[in-house]
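As described in the Methods, two query proteins were run sequentially through the folding procedure within a single session, without resetting any intermediate state between them. The first query and its resulting structure tokens are shown here.
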Amino acid sequence: MIETFLLAMRSEFAAVRRNQGVLGILIGAILLYGLLYPTPYSAQVFRDVPVVVVDHDNSELSRQLLRMADASEMVAVKGLARDMRQAREQLYRSEVLGVVEIPHEFERRVLRGEPAVIGVYANAGYLLAYSRVAGAFTEVAMTLGAEVQIEQLLAKGVPPEHARVARAVMPVTIKNLFDPAGGYASYVVPAVLVIILHQTLLIGIGMLSADTRHLPMPPQAARSPGMWVLGRCVPYLLIYAINSLFFFGVIFRLYNLPSQGDGWQLVPFMALFLLATTLLGVVVGNLFRSSITVGQVLLFTSLPGVFLSGFSWPKEMLPEPLVWLSRLLPSTPGVEGFLRLHQMGASYRQIEWPLLNLALLVLLFWLVARWLTRRRAMAAG
């Protein structure tokens, strides 16, 4: 059995070394994605979103509102428009990403304590820009309203300290857990790096397996198919151990991505994740006769895999059949467990379900790969 394991390992190493296309995917793609993918998000947050303002009130209070908004780091007021038609034209031409409409009698309504609705419109095609514009003017409007109320209380003779307490009976302090900068890169890049490891490993193994399935298999593969399968996994596990170290040891530091967990604690979990992914790749490679077909099919599944993994779209919002389907992909428990261990500092006791999910996938894919290998070896013999 040990001889079968070692023979399979040497044969797979030789096959990987000979196939330049697979090496490009297993190593070149990792370097390319790792260095380039986080770059657009390195600024972390969307700042100075350009907006145009339609000020129907043209009062001192409305101008103060605009000065406060422009002074914030969230938006940049690019100018005034005569009416909403002109503002919409600038939005359609992408000269600005947001429009703010201040109504008539804005100052009068605020001073009288009446509702004064500010219209905030943004290009929802840019989700981050939309949220920044809405958040900026909500914060500025609440701050300005608080200042007006405090001034009114002071005018009535209320002591300053009492006026401030009366305005903020229940102050709220917001802290971003596990993402101190509140940035998009800290949210999306760690999970996507796990998806990249998953997809490139699947594509590389699948394409190589499809290319080599016409070659004769040694008799040891028929006698001990389970050990043959495990031996085939070793080269990929070694290559992706280095790839994982590059991602989580170099890329995280290069882009200042936050991490709470212990790197050594991550090793057993990543080994289980990579083994499950490798075994799935062996299974997939045995189902197709052409490496081109394997690449096309697996590339097509990349985006669905991202949504099924649960970090970009909550699993609670998915239909039940899709939730069960997602559990058949190592990327789902892989992303879930990695984010808890590495980003949130969780313990293994707190990731029991992702661990169990990966362990069951390892067993399932090993049994299927063993059966496929035995059938192929017996058919060749």
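Immediately afterward, the second query was submitted; its sequence and tokens are:
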Amino acid sequence: MENEPSSLPVFLQRFLAISPGGNSHTFPLMACMAGVLATCAWMLGGLSMAISAAIAVALMLVLAPMISPEVLMKLLRARPLDAASFPAIHEMAAMLARRAGLDYLPKLFLLPGKGVNAITTGTAEETTIAISNDALHTLSPRQMRALLAHEIAHAWHGDTRILLMTDVLYRATWTIALFGLMLFIFGDFDPPNWMVIVFGVVPTVSFLLQRAVIRDREFIADHGASDLLNGPEDMIEALLHIDQINRRRLRLIPYRSTQPPSLLDTHPPVSARIRALRDLKPGTWQKFFENRRPPGTK
């Protein structure tokens, strides 16, 4: 059974993207992260510290994208997926990229290791999708197309940029909180007890908000995959099949069978994702194709 924290109020489960709510809460969640960072900086050094933190975040956002996707692929020991050996997968990716209106073709890589998995990284001009070896050999063509549609939806929605921003906000909050605690412990400043508690807690709060953003983008990517596939059926089938494979293949590794608390997980429960897909109304994906049909076609 999926581990869903029923003790939380429904509106909070939806806001934190543990259960589907029909609307994206990405930007309110990011605003909360920015608010936590600004409050922490202001408490530590007033307006000047808050401004310094904003400048540091801006610099990190400018410098972080310089990391090449190829470097990350090397760190993950991924290798390019040969188009000559797997032409159908490359054709699927190209077709879905055209449907999404992307003006580039994502680069495909193959990840080592067990379990069905896929990641999307890079910028809008250089998106890279890596799929696992198990995904390559255990998914049917329809399921593979659904997996690729989900990953291309991440690129279509600009999720790599959004997740980069949340990572920078979290790291900046963690750094300021740690600096504050060191100052409280080793400096001459004698803060009230509540301030020490706040600085000890804010990194965890920022981390939980970051995880909520990631889960929210997963719901949105599922919806985007439904748009690209002209309906949610293939995505639902793929989610069920992938979950079964991963339970079996990763039985010795903590995964869905020993699922961590949903607040700490990067993905919503599979049951919640399927429920969200089944709740989609037909018009939400048919309109996508009406708007993006190439000129001159019927």
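Residues 183 and 189 are 7 Å apart (CA to CA). We note this only descriptively and draw no conclusion about the first query from it.
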